[in-house]
Design brief:
Number of helices of chain A: 10
Structural class of chain B: alpha/beta
Shape of chain B: globular
Distance between the termini of chain B: 97 Å
Distance between the termini of chain A: 47 Å
Number of helices of chain B: 11
Oligomer: heterodimer
Helix content of chain A: over 70%
Number of strands of chain B: 10
Shape of chain A: elongated
Largest sheet of chain A: none
Radius of gyration of chain B: 23 Å
Strand content of chain B: 15-25%
Radius of gyration of chain A: 20 Å
């Protein structure tokens, strides 16, 4: 109950840090989707590129997040502002689930459907936008959902390099050895993750073909 | 008076040029140049394979293939799996391109036509149907007309007409493919192929996956339909009975080669070893099936 009192007392700061957190996660997920979905489409159509692209995304995923933030710190323009840096790192982490699910979703389209479409005289872009993407959309969205949930968690760590967000409470609480302060960061972060999960999950079901 | 004569002159000047424009368009549609025009007017076959071979990864799938399909006839490609039937079919709408030789459609080498334009003028029906699962029946059938820019009302009317033509109730229009039976799906597949009223229809074992009763029904309807529409049809099957029933001519294929082309009646009396083997196999099959039923 102490936690709730603490959050209520500091509600302005909680709201501010939550918004910062949302900004980090939102921008990075958007960027990752803008890069990852086209990349996933490309590798689904060119099997040769599939291994190198997925392997690279995999390798990025294995770099410990704190280390990645550290590596990026000396990069000129990026290192100037902590939020730029955090957004780049979060974008990189969000790529893998988005690329992989786009690839899987598009490869999962029934070959007979594609052949019929091609035989009817659909152009490749008509095939992509009218057939492949609509049929793959729920799989792609579930990749986006995973990416968001990962990002909400990772963004708390980005506070270590001063990018703001709910991680600030967590690190401050750790330094002060005060559970209330840690939870004031952790609880809203968990709620964010759950809300995003439910929201995108709902969208996913709405857009599911059949 | 003055104005009258100018409009009159303008008309006179305009009329012939419009006609010749029309002619030019027609020639361009088929192909550019005189040669194409002459070939096209000279009752050329709807589809012609000339010395066609097709290799994939060093394997000869089709070799020395020559065949003419005339306008309005149904040619059945009969042969076992791997004999090159489906490959031949896909060479027509350029889902595949021949390694050597040439396939002409309506007198024009199909490599000289825009591939999308070519395909929209050829209906294509496959065994797995390949209906778009996220579209209703209506959108499935109306897709090509829609892409071709038909007005919505005309598309709706066409869909209704086609559903009736293939023997489906109009209520089906709003259903999704997974709500249909196999026979209904295949009928929708045929309706979709007919949507933009193509002159040529390619059918790749369209009734192969259906139960015998439904297949029989669809074969009968195909004949009725063909009697009305007179499409040029190339039909792939490995079922001799189907070939005899539906084909104007049967092209017998084996190991990537065309063995012989015969009418159904000629086929039954043919002395060609492969043709008589087919007749025998089906005859024997029937006999043993009948025996098994009796015992």
């Amino acid at each position: 109950m102490n936690v709730i009192r603490f959050i209520l007392q500091n509600h302005e700061q909680v709201v501010e840090l939550t918004l910062e957190h949302l900004w980090l996660v939102g921008v990075s997920t958007l960027l990752a989707a803008l890069i990852g979905i086209p990349l996933g489409i490309v590798i689904a159509h060119r099997p040769r590129l599939n291994k190198p692209v997925l392997a690279s995304a995999n390798i990025i995923q294995t770099i410990p997040s704190l280390a990645l933030f550290g590596f990026l710190l000396p990069v000129p323009w990026l290192g100037d502002r902590a939020d730029r840096l955090a957004i780049l790192a979060l974008t990189l982490y969000a790529l893998l689930p988005i690329i992989r699910n786009t690839y899987t979703g598009i490869r999962g389209v029934d070959p007979a459907v594609l052949e019929a479409g091609r035989g009817m005289g659909l152009t490749e872009s008509q095939l992509l936008f009218q057939v492949e993407l609509p049929l793959a959309v729920s799989v792609i969205l579930s990749g986006v959902r995973v990416a968001i949930v990962i990002s909400v968690g990772l963004a708390t760590i980005a506070a270590a390099i001063g990018s703001g967000g709910l991680g600030e409470f967590i690190f401050r609480g750790l330094a002060m050895v005060d559970d209330r302060v840690i939870l004031a960061g952790a609880i809203p972060a968990a709620i964010l993750a759950l809300a995003a999960d439910l929201g995108v999950g709902w969208l996913e079901r709405r857009l599911q073909p059949r | 008076m003055g104005s009258y004569s100018t409009t009159n002159r303008a008309n006179q000047g305009h009329m012939p040029s419009r006609v010749s424009d029309g002619n030019q368009n027609w020639a361009l549609d088929i192909n550019s140049g005189m040669l194409a025009k002459m070939q096209a007017t000279d009752a050329s076959p709807a589809i012609e394979f000339r010395d066609v071979s097709y290799c994939v990864e060093g394997t000869q799938v089709l070799s020395g293939f020559n065949l003419q399909v005339h306008s309005g006839e149904t040619v059945v490609l009969l042969g076992r799996s791997g004999s090159g039937k489906t490959t031949s079919l896909k060479l027509v709408n350029r889902l595949l391109t021949p390694t050597t030789g040439q396939v002409s459609v309506k007198g024009v080498p199909n490599t000289q036509t825009d591939v999308i334009h070519l395909r929209r003028g050829i209906g294509y029906v496959i065994q797995d149907v390949g209906l778009f699962p996220h579209f209703t029946v209506e959108r499935n059938i109306g897709l090509v007309p829609k892409i071709e820019g038909w007005p919505a009302e005309r598309i709706r009317a066409r869909v209704r007409e086609l559903l009736q033509l293939v023997g489906l109730a109009p209520e089906i229009a709003s259903r999704y493919p997974h709500q249909l039976s196999g026979g209904q799906r295949q009928r929708v597949g045929v309706a979709r192929a007919l949507a933009a009223d193509p002159e040529i229809l390619l059918m790749d074992e369209p009734f192969g996956a259906l139960d015998p009763l439904t297949r029989d029904e669809l074969q009968r309807e195909f004949l009725l339909l063909q009697r009305r529409l007179h499409k040029t049809v190339v039909f792939v099957t490995h079922d001799l009975r189907e070939a005899l029933r539906l084909g104007s001519r049967i092209a017998l294929m084996e190991a990537g080669r065309l063995v012989t082309v015969l009418t159904p009646h000629e086929f039954l009396r043919s002395s060609d070893p492969l043709a008589s083997a087919y007749v025998k196999a089906f005859g024997d099959g029937l006999e043993s099936a009948a025996n098994r039923g009796a015992s």
